[in-house]
Amino acid sequence: MADIIQLLPDSVANQIAAGEVIQRPASVVKELVENAIDAGAIQIKVNIKDAGRTLIQIIDNGCGMSDTDARMAFERHATSKIRTANDIFAIRTMGFRGEALASIAAIAEVELRTKEHDQDLGTFIHISGSNVITQEPVRCDNGTNFQIKNLFFNVPARRKFLKSNPAELKHIINEIQRIALANPDISISLHHNGSAIYELSSTNKRVRIVSMFGKNINQSLIPLDTDTSVVKISGFIGQPKHAKKLFGEQFFFVNKRYMKHPFFHKAIMQCYEKILPPASFPSYFIYFEINPAEIDVNIHPTKTEVKFENESAIWQILQASVREALGKFNIVPSIDFDQAGSVDIPMPLRDFSDVSMPEIKINPSYNPFDAPTPSRNYSGTGSSFSSKPVERPNAANWQSLYKGLEPNFDSSPEKQEDEPIQFRIEEQQTTKSSVQFKNKYILTPVKSGLMVIDQKRAHERILFERLMQVLENHEVASQQQLFPETFELNASDATLLTSILPDLHALGFDIRDFGKNSFIVNGTPGVLNTSSPIEIIESLLEEYKNSPVNLQEKARETVAISLAQASAIPYGQALKSNEISELIDNLFACQTPNFTPKGKKILSIMPLDDFEKLLK
Ligand code: ADP
Ligand code: MG
User: Fold this and answer.
1) Distance between CA 173 and CA 92 in Å, rounded?
2) Ligand 1 pocket list (CB less than 6 A)
3) Is-contact 147 129, C-beta < 8 A?
4) Which stretches of 240-361 are assigned E, i.e. beta strand?
5) Residues with beta carbon < 5 A to ion ligand 2?
6) Interior angle at CA 170, CA 169 and CA 176, nearest 5
7) Is-contact 589 453, C-beta < 8 A?
8) Is 209 helix (H, G, I), strand (E, B) or coil?
9) Mind listing the pLDDT tens digit for each residue in 41-92?
10) Cβ-based neighbour number of residue 255 at 10 Å
11) Cα distance between residue 568 and residue 570, in whole Å
12) How far apart are CA 334 and CA 346, in angstroms?
């Protein structure tokens, strides 16, 4: 047979390689801004049009390139940053793989103007899909000016893969956020379609954080400072009382490079154990400085994963450093450093007066099937099971509603395995003999055994169906706030919130853009009856971000799901017996009581037989 193996042409190889480095417009922004930093720039301007689809422009005042280098820079594996493989172990620059420019040039139109400081003329290069169209001398400023146009023009599959403009813009903002936090000494601006998102001047870490996340964060920041022979740790952690429902103010940097590190994240969360409000995240901005020989950043082309040689030692140092900082600021009354990793932190100074003690008393005279009770507000959660009385099914309805019910939900792995559970509720021992267990479950006797209901999931289902009803019937009922509250988000969350504002309006939220990433809440959905709208909006954004449902097609539903999740009674909340029965009644008045809108199981029955077997 004839030989069939051929070397791929460079343009094809580059296009394939681009798939790894350049996934979306934000990847281009990251690579080019990192190049500017490596070029010693102290001022970087980023201009974006249409979330990077039409234009990404990066202007820096770094060292610039000679005309030969400017041409060479687009070759694969062309780099000025390392010469030998060993150099990787002493790397202090952001780049070193020499892939970015070759990849970008393979999938876009690139115009480069660059000039070294000691030259009179610079050089202009126009490249399209790896082909050099022109190169000529040009008058331009010192430094480098890249314009990337028509990204993915020759990779339709990639282009189709891109999300909506707000989503892509959010990725870009996130990249700039990371780079700007890692390099507070560099002035950096970001403009989108002509309007400024960031205009940050050279400063220190604290001021940079405050200028990006709003002045409220300033009072929350506790400084960290630990210098050991293994690692130097600096930066800030947030006070527990300022912890947010929204994830997104957690940053690790190593040698000025942003990194993701779930293991160190866990180390920090352990230090905050028991001193945080439920389901909230403390902010942190932690900067590690370490000998580059002791880390490996070359695990993935995007270099956000970093491997530490001395991971467990750094874990200990990090925890000691965080605990010391919390201790110094009197967040934790006493700390015992000898019990590293397992310090049992006494109850915090935080005011938990709004959380009532668990109680599982049963009111024997209570009949849940009496006339509808007025709605209640669950202290602490700001949400209530009902604001509008729901038709209360009697026990017989309850059963028939439930029997043979075909759950209708998407993306549930449990869906297939789960047969509809058949049971008969006993007339006399219905919801009133239900009890709460571990402030998380509700146990209800049924004919065939014991039904276990997940309280948070149940409430999610109830709220979701009510919200969907609001959407379907266009019966927006907004509860006006007596004192409208304003709140500020970071730029990326603000973009996200702006993109879902119309859906939130349809659900009854009256939120207006107040300029500069702040918003004002004038009203909240009647169905939620909430007293802490900002907390709910923060959790809602968090849930929405983590939502797997296809956002483009089912945006409204996703918002409703996220809102239901954000407002549902949390685990750990004690319920009174009438609240328990109301929850059960409302759950079984739902169309799909078995599963949450995201397809998680709400309830299960432990058969009587199992009890008997247990005690054999
Ligand atoms: P890497 O950053 O890994 O070296 P790139 O493909 O990103 O690879 O860049 C290739 C080379 O082009 C760099 O090593 C650098 O010499 C040069 N270069 C890229 N961007 C700039 C810039 N903004 N200013 C000066 N030189 C640059
Ligand atoms: Mg680079």
Assistant:
1) 24
2) 31, 35-36, 38-39, 60, 62-65, 73, 78-81, 95-102, 144
3) no
4) 250-254, 257-259, 284-289, 295-296, 307-308
5) 35, 95, 100
6) 90
7) no
8) helix
9) 999 999 999 999 999 999 999 999 999 999 999 998 889 888 888 887 888 8
10) 19
11) 6
12) 8
